[in-house]
Amino acid sequence: MSALGIAAAVRSGERSAVEVVEEYLDRIETLDAELNAFNLVMADEARRVAAAVDERIAAGDDPGPLAGVPVALKDNMCTRGIATTCSSKILEGWEPPYDATVVERLAAAGAVAVGKTNLDEFAMGSSTENSAFGPTRNPLDTGRVPGGSSGGSAAAVAADLAPISLGSDTGGSIRQPAAFCGVVGMKPTYGAVSRYGLIAFGSSLDQIGPFSTSVADSAAVLEVIGGHDPLDSTSIDAPAFDLRSVLDRGVDGMRIGILRELSGGPGSVDGIAPDVQACTTAAAEALEAAGARVQDVSVPSATLGLSAYYLVAPAEASSNLSRFDGVRYGLRADAPTTGAMMTATRTAGFGPEVKRRIMLGTYALSAGYYDAFYGKALKVRTLMLAEFAAAYEQVDLLLTPTAPTTAFRLGERTADPMTMYVNDVCTIPSNLTGHPGISVPFGVGDDAMPVGIQLLGPALSEPTLYRAAAVLEASAPDPAGKEGR
Amino acid sequence: MSGLHESALPDEWELVVGLEVHVELATQTKLFCGCANEFSTEPNTNVCPTCLGLPGSLPVMNETAVEFAMRLGRALGCEIHPSVMARKNYFYPDMAKDFQTTQYDQPTSRDGELVLADGTVVGIERAHIEEDAGKTTHVGGGGRINDAQYSLVDYNRAGVPLVEIVSRPDIRTVDHAKAYVSELRDILLAIEVSDAKMEEGSMRVDANVSVRPAGSDELRTRCELKNINSIRSLGRAIEYEARRHVDLYESGEAPRQETRHWDEDGGRSTAGRSKEDADDYRYFQEPDLVPLAPSADHIAEIDAALPILPAARRARLAALSSVADDVLVTVVERGQDALALGAIEAGADPDKVLTRIQNDLAVDDWSAVKSETLATVLQMESSGELSATQTKQVLADMAAGLHGGDPKAIAASHGFEAMASDALDALVDQLIADHPDEWTRFTTGDESDRKKMQGFFTGQIMKASKGQADGRAVAELLGRKST
Q1: Which of A418, B45, B311, B365 has its CA 20 to 30 A from that of B319?
Q2: pLDDT beyond 80 at A377
Q3: What is the dihedral of CA A411, A413, A414, A416, to 10 degrees?
Q4: pLDDT per position as a tens digit, B7-61
Q5: Edge-to-edge strand order for the sheet containing B86-89?
Q6: Selected residue of A102, A321, A338 to mutate for chain B interface (largest B Cβ count, 10 A)
Q7: Is A268 a catalytic residue?
Q8: Distance between CA A430 and CA B344 in Å, rounded?
Q9: How far is CA B89 from CA A327, A445, B101, B390, in A?
Q10: Average pLDDT for residues A319-348, to the nearest whole number?
Q11: What letter does residue A422 receive in the DSSP assignment?
């Protein structure tokens, strides 16, 4: 059942929130041993919160738009008094003394947090294989990865262990796993959703967004978690989104551009698989059939995104992750001096991918290298902003595949980080520009695994994106991947 | 003035000093969170996720701190620029995030100057906003981080707003270094952005010291002196360090660029961290904060709200009087310049007003003294109604608020009435008669004898008149009678 369906049933008294949560806790209990989508199941907490929702309903109070809807939270979002690990050993034993803003907003809307989901350690990865707690498996084919870094949240929704979940997207970490798992994944405009309480990876790129099985559910969750937050200085001071009311407006007359450099045709980067390219073309045709004016649009600098990203994100990460030094919280390795303790703690606490990125970022920011690396990446960012702004003069939205391929097999790409990194080539540009992007399932690849189509738009174009996403959803050839349940 | 004080450095050497002053801003709350800006409480109680740098926490800029920093920048004649915060990355346990949020290549205030009381101009390179760190106590092993048995960290101070004011290396004497700090303190107090107490650490001064051959304009290797806790200590530290450099050069060696720790008790500086193996701080723009871009209107508002600064207040007094600079400095520092101006306006002699204030109103609370009553008491003195000693006494009682601070009532309460001149004349004649030998020494002795005897007679007259004789009148009478 959709999140909105559950909320309607709970609000009307047709079902109790407790009943719903018990059902989902059962599913998690049964299915998650194999999937490993959850780092932690908040069973007691969820029952308590669900009971409180039922009491509000019994008392005649408005329980909120997501009343009784179970939600899974990526385990890099702070939950008061509940372990928050980033799937890293270094945060061992740490319980945040506060809730992230998104967690508070979901609770205020009546949603019931059921657990914390697995991720690539500190959100660094594209397969959820870089977790200190083992990989998450793709529910549609457990021999395959769910994508990453929000693989746990994507898998949880795909396997219906929760109707909705939250992920974070620094270079595609919501959209790519959504594509791999056949669900809807949204990365909002940078600043549209508060980052307060999200454990930072790349602060200028990170953005929280929802996973769901439907575009309407996605819109409903974004309406709840979005909007200005005074605790996040980069939060946009704009009214909360009104998305659901525009969902059925269609795309008649909308100008949509196929982003040439990222879509597999002539002029595109290499590596876009033919089956994925075929779905992309089909999606464009479906939009055109619905009344959109589709054209080819070139954004040459889009191909530079990957290189710029792998300087900016690690640079920020190298600084953001400094605080994990064993002094105040989490793991502390024993050593004779403070300096040695910090080194030993970080050596023992971080996994190899995190260490690799800390080293990359430290190098990129070093005196003598800053201009050649970090400084140059910032220039690419500026260039991309200008080129995308020019593209959005020609069209309202851009369209690309979400990822170059469908979900790959576990272990297939772990040996060579570069083959893993190129997975994010289509998603990274909108993190560098701060623009929103949504991945909608559209068809399947030759391996019968779902393909995700990505729609991109300028800052705060979410209403337009959701309109087009709803059209894609309605015209998708097959409810991709759903036969896997 | 040349060299240190007089003759402290050999003439062929010149001192070169630049000062870096950290000032705690007196805001209600910390720089990036809502915690109270006070840290004298139980360790680690005045903290929150943000100032503890907990995972997921974010900073929010304190607008008042920016306002204060801009006010300070303008008071130092700086240009206010669009600025950004940056991260200065290094590992230290008192840094909650293992980076300090500060300003790097785009500070708020640039290119100002500070004018010392004697007119010397010291350039200000920049004044930037940054956060303070916590406090570490290393226990055992000589109190150093890598030998300690254990270390304790208190984050109550973490995130307290600071402005760091960096002077150009324009300071050439110890006295100017001290005057710079005291002038800066006066400005901070006048614009009400900090309580500027060096002893309590709300104002911290680091001195970059080097020497060079007199007349040269080179900048030689400098050492940065830390742990200077008073203006006096600043003078001693610079003096010690300059001599150390001179000694090194004169023995064919050279100082190394390093940070040195001033040991006030031992009266010497000791080597600290060498700058050669200094950390690479990997500065980059703080992505969790937005740039600061004050409008021209905002800067104009700040200018309009600035009080008259100490230098201008001294200049106003200087234009009306002929007293020495240090008298003006004292009167303005104590905030007694308005009192002085009022008394001068009421007709009192400007020099007399300022000297009397400097000498006789050096008390914490002088609020009972008003310009009018000050003018009155000085009038009473100059008309001979009160002797100098009596005037001093009356002023003391006025400051204490006795008799409603009314000088006439106070004088009356003491029975003060300057001795009538014929009575004084008679008294002097009587004393001359009583002490013929002393009188002979006064009239015929050498300069030293004359001085001693003048003191003797004045003392006798004061004693006999119970202080009611006017000292100047006595001196005049003695002089007249001796010729």
Answers
A1: B365
A2: yes
A3: 150
A4: 468 889 999 999 999 999 999 999 999 999 987 789 999 999 999 999 999 999 9
A5: B99-102, B86-89, B284-285
A6: A338
A7: no
A8: 71
A9: 16, 46, 9, 65
A10: 95
A11: G
Confidence label for B477 from pLDDT (cuts 50, 70 and 90): confident
Tokens (6 digits) for A185? 């994944």
Q: Answer whether B165's CB lies under 8 Å from B72's CB.
A: yes
A418, exposed or middle or buried, with CB in 10 Å at 0-12, 13-18, 19+?
exposed
A149 is catalytic: yes
The structure tokens listed for B104 are: 């790097």
| Residue B222, both tokens | 């400098």
Angle at CA A247, nearest 5°, toward A242 and A251? 120
B261 Ramachandran zone, left/alpha/beta (phi>0; psi -120 to 50): beta
**Whether the Cβ atoms of residue A282 and residue A443 lie closer than 8 Å to each other:** yes
Q: Evaluate if residue B330 carries a pLDDT over 70.
A: yes
Distant-in-sequence, close-in-space partners of A196: CB < 8 Å, separation ≥ 6: A100, A101, A229, A231, A232, B56, B57, B58
- The distance between the two most distant Cα atoms of chain B, rounded to a whole number of Å, is 94
Which residues of chain A are within 8 Å of residue B49 when distances are taken between CB atoms?
96-98
Between chain A and chain B, how many beta carbons pairs sit less than 8 Å apart? 110
B444: DSSP letter? H
B395 sits in the region (left: phi over 0; alpha: psi -120 to 50; else beta) called alpha
Cβ atoms of B125 and B320 within 8 Å: the answer is no
Taking 70 as the threshold, does the pLDDT of residue B2 lie above it? no
Is the separation of the CB atoms in A406 and A275 below 8 Å? yes
Kindly tell me if the per-residue pLDDT of B1 is higher than 70. no
Query: What's the pLDDT at B417?
Result: 67
Q: Which two tokens stand for residue B291?
A: 């740039």
Give me A257's structure tokens.
């551009």
Angle between helical axes of A215-225 and A101-108 (0-180°, round to 10): 110
C-beta separation of B454 from B409 below 8 A: no
Beta strands A437-444 and A38-41: pairing type?
Answer: unpaired
Check: CB of residue B2 under 8 Å from CB of residue B170. Answer: no
Residue appearing with tokens 């960290």: B153
Terminal-residue alpha carbon distance, chain B: 43
Rounded to whole angstroms, the Cα distance separating A157 from A154 reads 5
- Give, in order, the Cα–Cα distances in Å from A50 to each of A45, A221, A316: 9, 18, 38
CB burial class (10 A; 0-12, 13-18, 19+) of residue A245? Answer: exposed
Q: Hey, are the CB atoms on B93 and A327 less than 8 Å from each other?
A: yes
- Residues of chain A in contact with residue B280, where contact means CB-CB under 8 angstroms, are 366-367
Active-site annotation holds for A173: yes
SS3 B125: strand
Find the helix or strand (DSSP H, E) in which B463 lies. Answer: helix B447-465
Residues of B in contact with A78 (CB under 8 A): 54-56
In whole angstroms, give the CA distance from residue A324 to residue A308.
26
Q: Residue A443: helix, strand or coil by DSSP? A: strand
Cite the DSSP H helix spans in A95-214. 101-108, 151-158, 175-181
Domains located in chain B, CATH noted: 13-303 (no CATH), 310-414 (no CATH), 421-482 (1.10.10)
Q: Could you give the 3-state DSSP secondary structure of residue B332?
A: helix
List, in order of start, the domains of chain A with CATH numbers.
Answer: 3-245 (3.90.1300.10), 248-307+371-484 (3.90.1300.10)
The answer to whether B99 contacts A94, with C-beta atoms less than 8 Å apart, is: no
3-class DSSP state for residue B181?
helix
B324: alpha, beta or left, given left = phi > 0 and alpha = psi -120 to 50? beta
Q: Given pLDDT bands bounded at 50, 70 and 90, which one contains residue B420?
A: low
Cβ pair B408, B376 in contact under 8 A = yes
Which tokens hold the place of A179? 């594509």
Q: Give, in degrees to the nearest 5, the angle at Cα B57 between B54 and B58.
A: 135
